[in-house]
Design brief:
This protein has 237 residues and is an alpha/beta fold. The chain has a single domain, classed as NAD(P)-binding Rossmann-like Domain (Rossmann fold, 3-Layer(aba) Sandwich), CATH 3.40.50.720. The chain contains 9 helices and 9 strands. The strands form 2 sheets. Strands 3-2-1-4-5-6-9 form a 7-stranded parallel sheet, sandwiched between helices. A two-stranded parallel sheet has the order 7-8. Strand 5, helix 6 and strand 6 form a beta-alpha-beta unit. Helix 1 crosses helix 8 and helix 3 runs parallel beside helix 5.
Length: 237
């Protein structure tokens, strides 16, 4: 397959690229910068210039592929700890998914999108499940799955991978601050010690398996999630 990968130079996408190539597939990676283009070429991928702010570039990339994995997400709200922008970046993700869906409409080419495990929580404090989704959930991240449902209804083959906190041995993602607190206090500062993080390569494998499973099928969105190491184990690392 020729796979159009958004977020190809990002935290998760850069791990997916070699996995796809190792499996014998071609990767068309989205990037906006010269540095990103050099990184993709070095990894053995093709370069597609564009950005989430340019819907037409997303449509052009998807139109050239046998399937799409959408990893890109604007994390500016998190990097600056300015969560007032969270709704704005979630709206951007919704528009991006709809643009990708427009290019795939009328075909069986798979579109794999991402969301968060919290979208599967029916009752606060209870485990999330993959068969639950509340479009009225107060978390703006619901917009990604709302968009996925909308393009599904237009005949696009959509799968959803719900990700918890994603980390590797260097970067703990959004839970980095909590890890710092845990280390400072020398205890697990996460109430209930819930397992909220997943290994980076686990999420990489999930996305790729979802894409392979979705290829050539038309069905309701498949939602998956996994949890990995606990915040306590990260703090003690």
């Amino acid at each position: 397959m020729r796979v159009f990968l958004t977020g190809a130079t990002g935290f998760i996408g850069s791990a997916i690229v070699p996995e796809l190539i190792k499996a014998g597939h071609q990767v068309l990676g989205l990037t906006r910068s010269d540095a990103g283009a050099r990184s993709l070429i070095a990894a053995g991928a093709e370069v597609h210039r564009g950005s989430l702010e340019d819907p037409q570039s997303l449509r052009r990339g998807a139109a050239q592929a046998d399937g799409v994995i959408h990893c890109a997400f604007d994390h500016s709200a998190f990097g600056a700890n300015d969560f007032s922008k969270f709704l704005e970046v979630c709206e951007k993700d919704r528009r991006s998914i709809e643009s990708l869906g427009d290019a795939l409409r009328g075909s069986d080419r798979p579109l794999v999108i991402t969301s968060g495990t919290g979208m599967g929580s029916a009752v606060p404090g209870q485990p999330a499940t993959e068969d639950h989704f509340d479009p009225n959930h107060p978390n703006p991240r619901t917009l990604s799955e709302v968009a996925g449902t909308a393009v599904l209804e237009r005949g696009v083959n959509v799968s959803v991978v719900r990700l918890p906190q994603v980390h590797n041995t260097v970067n703990q993602g959004l839970i980095t601050y909590a890890v710092q607190v845990a280390r400072t206090l020398a205890r697990d500062s996460i109430a209930g010690r819930r397992r909220m993080s997943s290994m980076l390569l686990v999420s990489t494998g999930l996305r790729w398996r979802s894409a392979k499973r979705a290829a050539g099928t038309t069905r309701s969105p498949k939602r998956e999630y996994r949890c990995g190491r606990s915040p306590k184990s990260l703090a003690e690392a």
